[in-house]
Amino acid sequence: MFAYFRLLEKRRVRVIRLKEHDRSMAKTTAVSMSQELLEAIFEGAKRLYPKETILLLRGKKVKETVQVSDLIVPPLATYGHGFANYQLHLLPMDFSLVGSVHSHPSGNKNPSDVDFNHFFGRILMIVGYPFRGEQDVAVYNACGEKLPLLVTRE
Q1: Which of 51, 54, 64, 81 is most buried (CB neighbours < 10 A)?
Q2: What rounded mean pLDDT belongs to the chain?
Q3: Three-class secondary structure assignment of the chain
């Protein structure tokens, strides 16, 4: 059985199908991370600007919240104008990876179709220019639903 989720994006309807066993991926309702990690993501995005950057997120799911604890630089990642990519087959087997984060130097924090096609893990985080604060971050689940980001001051 498949569940269908509809997303409106640029005047067209896109359908995402999730298999029954993948429904648990969609149950994430919030994401938490420390201010220090968020600042590290912003610093990396600023250093590569105007190119996109990409990082992997390590953490765990506690009830319906994903808690991000570490950032991982993917091996042999490619950073370019309008794209950032890494080879999945080069990643070590790590079951603590919960998603990825990449930058949009244009400032647009909405995910593209390509972003969803390369979705990895439970969450997709996008940081947009000018990379200064929580207003420059958007987090999405596998269904394309925007999730709240809870920044802890540790």
Answers
A1: 54
A2: 83
A3: CEEEEEEEECCEEEEEEEEHHHHHHHHCCEEEEEHHHHHHHHHHHHHHCCCCCEEEEEEEEECCEEEEEEEECCCCCEEECCEEECCHHHCCCCCCEEEEEEEECCCCCCCCHHHHHCCCCCEEEEEECCCCCHHHEEEEECCCCEECEEEECC
- Domain locations in the chain as residue ranges: 28-152
Q: pTM score, two decimals? A: 0.80
Alpha-carbon distances, residue 32 vs 16, 57, 81, 105, 141 (angstroms): 25, 11, 29, 23, 13
**CATH class of the 28-152 domain in this structure:** alpha beta
